[in-house]
Design goal:
mainly alpha; 3 strands
């Protein structure tokens, strides 16, 4: 079989992950190839386990290693930066037959992904309280608060995903009286440290609107529609203190 260089590279990568090995029989039938293939597979599996430590704590190393092997064959890395590997893992867990009795795993994995994204995000100057307080009151409604790259948030409807993630991330016991209700989470990085806190549905709606480029007035309206009893002043103070917004 005559292959172009690009065709050979594609076939080689596919064979490494157990896909269409017959395309390169002279190569794949060699004993050395199997050793190399196992090394590559193990590296990808190890990266996945490293990127989802909370999932490993929830299900155990043996279960996650077996699951990672299935995922790696299905979705091998496409980026040399293995910190980014596993973008599709939460969706995979949502549909994975052997995780059917653990329907929260996908959302907990999404929080591990957010942590990785915050960890790898670029640094940006932050908006501080004094700068925000100095804004002319007449201009407040029309300003746009831009979330920093090192801030991530998400609302999880119908599941206490944040509590499950936080307790396992912090190596604490999950409360015995845990309520099965929706929760939101905010993760942000400041001075090199990543912090996390709970968010309400209105606060998540506010940040979604800010990220979409809407004005403070428009974002506040979205927040109040989602949560009519939301204290906007308290919310803004908390979000600014968490270094969520970029400097104006």
């Amino acid at each position: 079989m005559n292959l172009s260089l690009a065709g050979f590279q594609d076939a080689f990568i596919s064979a490494l992950y157990g896909k269409n090995p017959e395309a390169l029989p002279v190569l794949t039938e060699q004993a050395g190839f199997l050793v190399y293939r196992n090394t590559v597979m193990k590296g990808a599996c190890d990266a996945l386990l490293a990127n989802f430590p909370t999932i490993e704590r929830l299900v155990g190393s043996e279960w996650l290693q077996a699951t990672a092997a299935v995922y790696v064959r299905q979705s091998p890395p496409t980026d040399a930066r293995l910190l980014n590997y596993g973008q599709g893992f939460p969706d995979f867990l949502d549909a994975f037959e052997h995780a059917r009795d653990l329907p929260y795993l996908g959302n907990v994995a999404r929080l591990d992904l957010l942590w990785n994204e915050v960890h790898g995000a670029c640094d940006e100057p932050r908006l501080d309280v004094s700068t925000f307080a100095a804004i002319n009151p007449g201009q407040l409604a029309s300003i746009r608060l831009k979330p920093r790259a090192a801030a991530r948030w998400q609302w999880f409807a119908g599941q206490p995903a944040y509590t499950l993630w936080r307790c396992n991330r912090e190596h604490n016991d999950v409360p015995a009286d845990l309520r099965w209700v929706g929760e939101g989470a905010l993760l942000s990085r400041s001075t090199g440290a990543i912090t996390w806190q709970a968010l309400s549905i209105g606060e998540c709606a506010f940040l979604d609107a800010c990220a979409a480029g809407e004005t403070l007035e428009q974002a506040a309206e979205k927040a109040e529609q989602a949560q009519p009893d939301l204290d906007l002043t308290n919310m803004l103070g908390r979000l600014i203190a968490a270094d969520v917004f970029a400097a104006q």
